[in-house]
Each structure stands twice: as C-alpha cells, then as structure tokens.
Amino acid sequence: MSNTLINGELTSGQILKELMLKHQITQVKMREIVGKDKQENDLIEEKWLNKYLNGKKVAKFYWVLACVRAFDTLAGTFHEKQIMLQFIKEIDEKPELIMSAMMYCDQYNYLEELQKLTNIALNYQNNPNLKRYGTLTHINYKRKIELEKSMKSWNDPRNAENNHEEQKNKLLELCNEASNYKIPDSDLVSKVYKRILVAYIYHDLHYFTESLKELVGVEKLINSIEDSHYKSFSETKYYVLQQTINLRNCNLEEARKFSYKPLDVSINLKTRAYSYVTLGLTWAFIDAQKALEYFEKALDLYTQIGMDSAGLLVIKKIQFLKIHVSMGITIEELEHEQNKAYWLIKQSRKKEALHILDQLDNKEGTRAQRLWLRGLATDDAKYHWMSLELYIKQGGDRFFGMLPKEALLELGQDKYPINALYYAEVKSLYV
C-alpha cells in the first residue's frame, strides 16, 4: 500500500508524524500520556504506532483519537479536528470504525462527514447492529439539519411562524420514525441511542415533560453498556440533555447536578465546556462572580479546541452578566452590538440604545432578547410580553424568560393580556 492517499494527500498518521517532529514530541512521551487514561492504557505499542505514523491503515478509531489528544496535550495545540477528519476519510468499511466515527461526528456536529458515514452504515449488509445504529444516526442527522433551519428562521419575523410550523411537523415525523423503529434487546447500544434520540426530538419540540419521561431508566441502561467508548458517548448525550431541559425549566439544582457529572467522567472537552456554561448560567442571577468563573473555564476550553463561534457566545454571556450586575465594564470593551444597547440602557442613554436596536433587526442576536431590550428602552410592557412569548415559542425557555418577566413586574404588570398568542404558556411561566 502507498504511504499517501490516492489523491496525493498525507495520511492522518503522516500529518501527526510531521507535527511530532515540528514540536519535538516523542512516541515515548505520547505513550506515557495515553497510558494514564484507564480506557486506553493497553493500546499503544511501538510497532502499532510506527505503522500508523508511516501511513499504514489501522483498525481502532479510539487508538488514533487517544494518540492525537496525547500529542495536543504535550504540544499545547489543537490539531484533533484536522487529523481525525482526515482519518475518517481513510477508514475501511469496518463496522467498529464506522460506528465510532459516527459517534464522534455526531458529538462534534461534523454534519458532512456524518451524512457520508450514515450512508455507508445504511447500506451495510453483514452487520445488523451497525445498520440499526446507522438508521438512528441518519434520523439524528436530519434532526440536526432541521434544528439549524429553526435557529435561522426565528430571526426572520416575517416568516418565523410559518417556518416554525413546518419544522415542527418535520420533527414530529422524525419523532415517529425513531419511536417506531424496532431495536432488539440484544442491541443495547442502539436501544439506548434510540431512547436518547427520541428525548432530544421531544426537547426540540419543547415537549420537556415527554423528553424527561423518555429518559427515565436510561442511565441504568447506559451503565450496562460494556464498551467503555460507547458508554461514554451515551453518557455525554444523556447528561447534556438533562442539563439543557432542567435549565430551561429553571430547575437549577438538577441542572447543576447533571453539569457536574461530565466533569468527572468526560474526556470530551466540548462537553466539559458546555457543562461549565450551564453551571455559569445556573449561578448567573444568584452569584455573578461564581458564574463568571465557570464562564471563564468554558471559554478556555473552547479556545483550546478551536471552537471560536462557541467562545464568542461565552464572551457575550460574560459581558452581558457584567453589564447586568454593574461590574464596571466600559462600552469600548463590548464586542456585541446587543450588549452595547443594554449598556446604554443601564446608563440611561435610551435613545442611543434604540438607535442600535433599530439597526440590529434581522441581524445579530435573538429577537426575544432584542424585544426585551426595546421594552427596557421604551418602558413599554408590550415589548416584554412579545419577548416572553417568543422565548417560549423559540425554546420553551423559562430561564431567559425571567428577564422580561422581571421587567413586567417592575412595570406593575400583574395581569395577562387577553390577546397573548401563547396565553396558557405565558401565564404558567409568569406565575
């Protein structure tokens, strides 16, 4: 076999070898790092690693991932995405490689690669477990696409309602497809994945009660999965969903409980960062200093793994919180126009804030938060009610809905407008 791919690219192993030479990282040091991971302590043999670094194909996904993470730890870099996506292009159609790669791409939202892998799995004839898992992953891929569309459509006030109904119907179809898909008890990994997938779709539909019901007993099933990697993947998805639902329902203690768990078990830096963000949010309106400490930890991890867009969202949260509790931040330090508008409102410069908000329509940030800010700038309860309704329709979000709720109370609004679009939901949140 040639040491390079057909198209002339370096293999993932050769890329790693060049990086090791550049940073003067030895195989011995890498094997020492990997050996500290209990899941991988018997995997690194010099013969195997030499084979991989010299462009030969290898059959263990998590062997490669452990090596890459060991290198990044030693070099203080983040080449994981570059090397692992190249490795995924190289893998043979071996069930354990395809399944592990699907889990990895699912976890990191590499949708193009996920689609290709699920197509391979769906056409796989000799491994029913892989085909079942591929079917569920394909449903999840379609769910992720609908979720991306939904996030974009809510910032389009002219078409948001129609788009929302269309996407809701598609999600219901996916929910039925996943719920009705038969999984034998012997296929525990797919059985757990199906339960978690259905719970995620219920979450996307804002059916939080149904989502939590679907998760009852899932943690016990996860603990019965023998493969440590498949178990870790299932744990991650389970804990993240529990965090999200409990935060949105303002069950802050439960949200914290499920945020701490991945910090103990997960080597997935993205999940750890997400957990720190959740912890920060649970403390945001209670102990701002503690919240900022968690946000800073999340920002460090997102920076480390090159997730710049996620890092920018954390920066936005940090700056928002500093404005909210009057921590002495200047407008020159702010990177987001929406935060600048809030800063101006806190300084009683409301006309300037309204000018910014007028420029932001259909551009930056969420409409729900902009409506809340407009209500603060105009002292008009109408905008707070609109914000509250939109928080509910966008994500059933009782947590961020506390902002317009608090503003309404300050304006003496203790009755619900009869023309509220989501009267029942708004009332349940408001009380």
How would you characterize the overall build of this protein?
The protein contains 23 helices and no strands. With 431 residues, the protein is an all-alpha fold. The longest helix has 26 residues, at 128-153.
Which features characterize this protein?
431 residues, 71% helix, mainly alpha, disordered C terminus
Summarize the structure.
By secondary structure, the protein is mostly helical. Helices cover 71% and strands 0% of the residues. The longest helix is centred in the N-terminal third of the chain and has 26 residues, at 128-153.
Structural class: mainly alpha
Order of helices and strands: HHHHHHHHHHHHHHHHHHHHHHH
**Which geometry do the CA atoms define?**
globular
Proportion of residues in extended strands: under 5%
What is the terminal-to-terminal distance?
Answer: 68 Å
Q: How many helices in DSSP terms? A: 23
The biggest sheet amounts to:
none
- What portion of residues is helical? over 70%
Rounded radius of gyration (Å): 24 Å
Uncertain segments of ≥5 residues (pLDDT<50)? 38-42, 418-431
Secondary structure tally: strands: 0
State mean pLDDT (0 to 100 scale). 85
Element layout with pairings:
Elements (H helix, E strand, L loop, with lengths): L11 H12 L3 H9 L10 H8 L7 H15 L4 H11 L4 H14 L2 H12 L5 H26 L6 H20 L8 H17 L3 H8 L2 H6 L4 H21 L3 H14 L3 H15 L4 H17 L3 H17 L12 H10 L3 H11 L6 H12 L2 H15 L6 H9 L12 H8 L1
Helix pairs in contact: 1-4, 1-5, 2-4, 4-5, 6-7, 6-8, 6-13, 7-8, 8-9, 8-10, 9-10, 10-11, 10-13, 13-14, 13-15, 14-15, 15-16, 16-17, 17-18, 18-19, 18-20, 19-20, 20-21, 21-22
